[in-house]
């Protein structure tokens, strides 16, 4: 059964990124195809190559930012079936929405789809899990702090796209007097300089898109692999004995620092039980810090130091212990992160040791193999090859009252590329679709071309409905999946 779940889950991740190619990567090639700068097949292949390079060079920060939205009890859950149902529900609901809006030719955000689905699943999990405390209400499973951070980036980035493209277009029009740039594309191929400019901006958007958007699928793929193949993916098996020794040394160095926060004897400090449950409680959105949180950090750090002192290679650790050690490392690292955000580490003279400890723990759990990156990048590229036409027509002809000209395409893509790179640097997911569509709208307004109200209404309606629709889809698919597995599997 696990092999069936594994195959189905991986197929859905690939399918999600394939459909993502319809929406987001199609935006990257929209201007070069619409302006006859490149033939569609060349544009798609070129964009796919740079998406691949963007994915391969990505840090993984965005991938794990998406994962951090999931309820912590599901991320570390030992119930493989429940965890797999979560990922399947998340992907199915996002794919359904993305396919529907693509069919209508509406460029919507795959990121919004994912976040909506995750929210619906978190609510369903809170309502259906009898092990959760009675004082938790349905919205308490949602990581509101991270949700606010991500939604803020998703709201601000289109505004940056609109204003940035408008300003850049006006600057270009004032400084560059080449008339060809400001005329609608003819059937013939544009001049070499214009082609070079548009290919350059297409390249930048494709690379930036791969480095940001491709990470969402990578994060989900790694969750699946960790749950279903823990012997290979629970820990980074390429971690060197030297790195493990450094982690053990850092564990020993932070324990005395943590002990300053609790009372009692040394024996009391080391004998605290239920530490995993305590850290899981603290990591809930409403979880409050108390002395037991510090005791749990000490207990789990001691466990990691002991295990890695005995086995200086992950190959020597049993499969069950690898899964447990991953959970330990995940909880410790995320607890330190939450303490840092709450300014609880400012009281320590050597808080840098705790930050370094967290970073070392992240290295053994937050990793993405190259073959996963390649699979995601290829899925994006293939999706673009199949479904680019609908989105290209919307971007080129249906946003403004005039057809997209060369300068508008270039400025919108340049601003899109810059915004995505900045978001990737700080580890926040953004929507290529929203930024580019807003950028084109901004350039149209700057050129006094006006906007097509009907298209804007449809776009805004689709954008506004994406979150609530995917919340409902995520809630429904997760609830149905749990019912089916409990009754028939």
UniProtKB/TrEMBL annotation:
GO biological process, one term: phosphate ion transmembrane transport
InterPro entries the record matches: Phos_transporter
Full protein name: Phosphate transporter
Membrane topology, from the record: Multi-pass membrane protein
Keyword hit for Methyltransferase: no
Bilayer-spanning residue ranges: 52-72, 84-104, 150-171, 192-211, 217-235, 367-388, 460-484
Keyword hit for Transmembrane helix: yes
Organism field: Pseudanabaena frigida
Reaction(s) catalysed (UniProt annotation): phosphate(in) + H(+)(in) = phosphate(out) + H(+)(out)
Cellular component terms per the entry's GO annotation: plasma membrane
GO molecular function: phosphate transmembrane transporter activity; symporter activity
Entry similarity comment: Belongs to the inorganic phosphate transporter (PiT) (TC 2.A.20) family. Pit subfamily.
UniProt-annotated location(s): Cell membrane; Membrane
Keywords, in A-Z order: Cell membrane, Membrane, Phosphate transport, Symport, Transmembrane, Transmembrane helix, Transport
């Amino acid at each position: 059964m696990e092999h069936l779940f594994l195959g189905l889950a991986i197929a859905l991740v690939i399918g999600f990124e394939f459909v993502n190619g319809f929406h987001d990567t199609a935006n990257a090639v929209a201007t070069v195809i619409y302006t006859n700068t490149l033939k569609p097949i060349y544009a798609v292949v070129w964009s796919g190559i740079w998406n691949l390079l963007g994915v391969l060079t990505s840090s993984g920060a965005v991938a794990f930012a998406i994962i951090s939205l999931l309820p912590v009890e599901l991320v570390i859950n030992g119930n493989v079936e429940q965890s797999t149902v979560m990922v399947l529900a998340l992907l199915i609901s996002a794919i359904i929405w993305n396919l529907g809006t693509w069919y209508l030719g509406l460029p919507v955000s795959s990121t919004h789809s994912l976040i909506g689905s995750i929210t619906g699943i978190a609510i369903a999990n809170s309502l259906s899990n009898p092990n959760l405390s009675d004082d938790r209400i349905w919205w308490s499973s949602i990581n509101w702090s991270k949700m606010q951070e991500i939604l803020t980036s998703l709201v601000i980035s289109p505004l940056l796209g609109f204003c940035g493209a408008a300003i850049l277009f006006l600057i270009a029009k004032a400084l560059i007097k080449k008339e060809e740039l400001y005329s609608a594309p003819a059937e013939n191929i544009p001049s070499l300089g214009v082609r070079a400019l548009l290919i350059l901006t297409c390249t930048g958007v494709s690379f930036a898109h791969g480095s940001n958007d491709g990470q969402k699928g990578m994060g989900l793929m790694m969750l699946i692999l960790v749950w279903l193949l823990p012997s290979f993916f629970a820990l980074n098996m390429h971690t060197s004995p030297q790195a493990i020794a450094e982690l053990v040394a850092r564990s020993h160095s932070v324990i005395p620092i943590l002990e300053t926060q609790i009372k009692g004897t040394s024996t009391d400090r080391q004998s605290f039980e239920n530490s995993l449950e305590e850290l899981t409680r603290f990591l809930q959105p409403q979880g409050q810090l108390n002395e037991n949180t510090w005791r749990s950090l000490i207990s789990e750090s001691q466990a990691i130091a002991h295990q890695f002192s005995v086995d200086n290679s992950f190959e020597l650790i049993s499969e069950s212990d690898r899964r447990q050690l991953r959970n330990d490392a995940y909880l410790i690292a995320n607890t330190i992160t939450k303490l840092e955000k709450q300014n609880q580490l400012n009281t320590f003279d050597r808080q840098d040791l705790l930050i370094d400890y967290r970073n070392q723990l992240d290295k053994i759990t937050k990793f993405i193999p190259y073959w996963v990156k390649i699979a995601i990048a290829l899925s994006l590229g293939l999706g673009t090859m199949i479904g680019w036409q609908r989105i290209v027509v919307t971007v080129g002809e249906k946003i403004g009252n005039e057809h997209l000209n060369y300068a508008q395409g270039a400025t919108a893509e340049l601003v899109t590329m810059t915004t995505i790179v900045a978001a990737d640097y700080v580890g926040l997911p953004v929507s290529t679709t929203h930024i580019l569509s807003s950028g084109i709208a901004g350039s149209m307004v700057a050129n006094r071309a006006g906007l097509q109200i009907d298209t804007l209404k449809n776009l805004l309606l689709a954008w506004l409905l994406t979150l609530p629709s995917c919340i409902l889809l995520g809630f429904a698919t997760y609830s149905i999946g749990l019912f089916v597995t409990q009754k028939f599997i």
